[in-house]
Design brief:
This protein is of the alpha/beta class. It has ten helices and 20 strands. It has a seven-stranded mixed sheet with strand order 16-15-14-17-18-20-19, sandwiched between helices. Helix 2 crosses helix 4, helix 5 packs parallel to helix 6 and helix 9 packs across helix 10. The longest helix has 18 residues. The structure holds S-adenosyl-L-homocysteine (SAH).
Length: 396
């Protein structure tokens, strides 16, 4: 089969020689052939030297690299990459674990599969394509997952309606590619159970990436009054309850999320009077709440900056949000504060939180610096893959 060839401008091969997995459109000198979005293409230096093979895209990132070794993806290639990803999760102790059936099996560039995310919830894998290239091979990927998982995964649900490039104009209807699972599928994380709604829920249905940070919170929860802001389906709240919190309040603007949070309370702590959930805007809740009511607060907002252009506003947003928490948290309180915006780096986030602390004038110490868990690995050649940042702060 003939693959289109992408020739780079002189000196533009350096990032590929360092295994960075993206080719930007501005680096391209000429294209030989007529690739369509999603096609496999070969990338060459201006001196006609082979560099890499990847999926072609229309947009600022023009090629997402799949191989630096001349491999053109076929079924064996997908199986190999997915089994490498699976082996890592096994080594992390996430597979066949009585207390945990939920983990990320494939994390895009972090698993050398740019454009692909796969989360596993017990017998169901939810597959999400962020590129047309991955969309086109979704069935091959689903089959590879089932084969590699050796009976552990029976259903593969495809959920890419909102993650594929808007202009790509491909038929990306959500639905099962293999098998089917009724609504009763439960995710388990460190022994806590969650209803996961991958059909209607956010992301693949659950924020798998906060597992270790939620678990850390459990250790801080004893005898605390806990406020879990942006709770989604209540993740942090249940760790707080198990950790011995005195009361736990969960807040989210989505009524559906609050509904699921309440269902999850019944699943884990039926009839426990310590928990209450509020479907309301976080900023309003923080404005209205009395001072010193809570001494453990979680702030886990959605990505304020989806693109670089809105970075300034996003940083203002983090500053404003954190300033409200610093103003109201009880003396000796602990604040878990996060940003999942890829466009905001660690230093920028810390500066926003620093500015918020300075406004409050309180004595604040950093206890932990948090990030994404090991099943969301960061390819060292692709620092952009580091997106989740968190600080645990002691506020006097
Ligand atoms: N902490 C959660 C994940 C949070 S995701 C977990 O561990 O699972 C971010 C959540 O913020 C979403 O559920 C979204 O509905 C909610 N959200 C977005 N804007 C909000 C706002 N202005 N006020 C309250 N919640 C908001």
């Amino acid at each position: 089969m003939d693959f289109a060839k992408i020739f780079l401008k002189p000196k533009k091969e350096d990032s590929l020689l360092r295994f960075h997995p993206w080719v930007f459109s501005g680096a391209i000198q000429r294209v030989v052939g007529n690739p369509k979005e999603g096609d496999v293409v070969d990338v060459y230096s201006s001196g006609n030297e082979y560099l890499a093979t990847g999926h072609y895209q229309v947009g600022s990132i023009a090629v997402r690299i799949l191989s630096f070794e001349g491999e053109h993806p076929d079924q064996a290639f997908w199986e190999k990459r997915i089994s490498e990803a699976f082996l890592l999760r096994k080594r992390l102790g996430l597979v066949d674990n009585t207390f945990n059936n939920t983990y990320r099996l494939v994390h895009g560039e972090g698993d050398c599969l740019p454009g692909l995310v796969v989360d596993v919830y017990g017998p169901t894998a939810v597959l999400q394509a962020h590129s047309v290239g991955m969309h086109m091979v979704r069935m091959e990927l689903a089959q590879a997952i089932v084969k590699v998982m050796e009976g552990r995964v029976e259903n593969v649900y495809y959920k890419s309606e909102t993650t594929l490039p808007f202009k790509a104009n491909v038929d990306s209807e959500n639905g099962y590619l293999i098998g089917e699972c009724d609504d009763q599928c439960l995710a388990m994380e460190y022994g806590l159970k969650f209803h996961v709604d991958w059909l209607r829920g956010q992301k693949t249905g659950f924020f798998v990436d906060q597992r270790e940070n939620r678990s850390l919170l459990e250790k801080y929860a004893k005898d605390r009054n806990v406020l879990n802001m942006f709770c989604y389906t209540g993740g942090f709240s249940f760790y707080a309850m198990r950790g011995g919190a005195r009361l736990v309040h969960s807040v989210d603007s989505s009524a559906k999320a609050i509904d699921l949070t309440n269902k999850n309370v019944e699943l884990n702590f039926p009839g426990d009077p310590r928990h209450e959930a509020f479907a309301t805007d976080a900023f309003k809740f923080l404005d209205d709440m009395e001072k010193d009511k809570y001494d453990l607060i979680v702030l886990d907002p959605p990505a304020f900056a989806k693109h670089r252009e809105v970075l300034r506003n996003a940083l203002q947003g983090y500053k404003k949000l954190n300033a409200k928490a610093f103003e109201k948290i009880k003396k000796g309180g602990v604040l878990f504060t996060f940003s999942c915006s890829q466009a905001v780096n660690k230093e920028q986030f810390r500066l926003a939180v620093f500015s918020a602390a300075a406004i409050s004038g309180r004595n604040v110490r950093i206890l932990h610096q948090l990030t994404q868990p090991a099943d969301h690995p960061i390819n060292i050649y692709h620092p952009e893959g580091e997106y989740l940042k968190g600080l645990v702060l002691y506020v006097e």
